[in-house]
Design brief:
By secondary structure, this protein is an alpha/beta fold. The protein has two domains: 3-119, Response regulator (Rossmann fold), CATH 3.40.50; 127-239, Arc Repressor Mutant, subunit A. The chain contains eight helices and 13 strands. The chain has helices spanning 12-24, 35-44, 61-71, 86-94, 107-119, 158-169, 177-184, 190-206, and strands spanning 3-8, 27-32, 49-52, 77-81, 99-102, 127-133, 136-139, 144-147, 152-155, 174-176, 213-218, 222-227, 234-239. It has a five-stranded parallel β-sheet, sandwiched between helices. A five-stranded antiparallel β-sheet has the order 9-8-7-6-13, with helices on one face. Helix 2 packs parallel to helix 3 and helix 4 (86-94) crosses helix 8. It comes from Chitinophaga costaii. The modification 4-aspartylphosphate is found at residue 53. It holds the Pfam family Response_reg.
Length: 242
Amino acid sequence: MKAGILLVEDDHFFAKVLKRYLEKADYEVICCENGERGWETFQQRPFDACLLDVMMPGKDGFELAREIRQKDGHVPLFFISSRFMEEDKMMGFNSGADGYLGKPFNFEELALRIKVFLKRARLQPDRRLLYHIGTLTFDYTELKILHPESGTCVCLPPKEADLLKYLCENANKKVRRETILMHVWGVDDFFVGRSMDVYMTRLRKHFRVDPSVKIETMHGLGFKFSFDNKTRPSYTTAALHN
């Protein structure tokens, strides 16, 4: 079955050309001309990826991205826009985007980025992936950090959860900054790097309740996610309950 892509773009000529290219790359592409129609279409069927323009009449791409993220925290979401100033990219990533390409861009590069994200193993819908980190539990499926002792939890944005998952899988190792960016975002980009720094700061705050959990900045290298007890995070899959 072909992967389905939602393309929301008000430039009809550009949308037609991009749709034709992606269909040749063996994707099914559904086009919408504005944010309102894009949101209606997204709710009608599942999509494997979303491509959103920013400047559209009515509901813009940033607003649409936030709505999509509230409904689906994992679908790959990319902005394709002629707006590519630093503040635009930061708004895009803070809206939940996995990538941001400024027009004009190389269609092949976009197709490769989509392929990278679609290759990521998606969890079975009836399974839950849990990482036990010190006294805390990270529920990747539900995008939450659980505090068993207090019974409270912290909800994470999708990309912050992806970052923490990668850190868990590479605990007690020094991981280069560019390696994290490529594995989590699929690109080593200055603007994405700034977004990653914000997420790292947030994660450190989440783990303040357990001094044994540390996210160290290795200057000139990257980061190290570690435990005083030298125990790597374990993860288990557990059936979801309604």
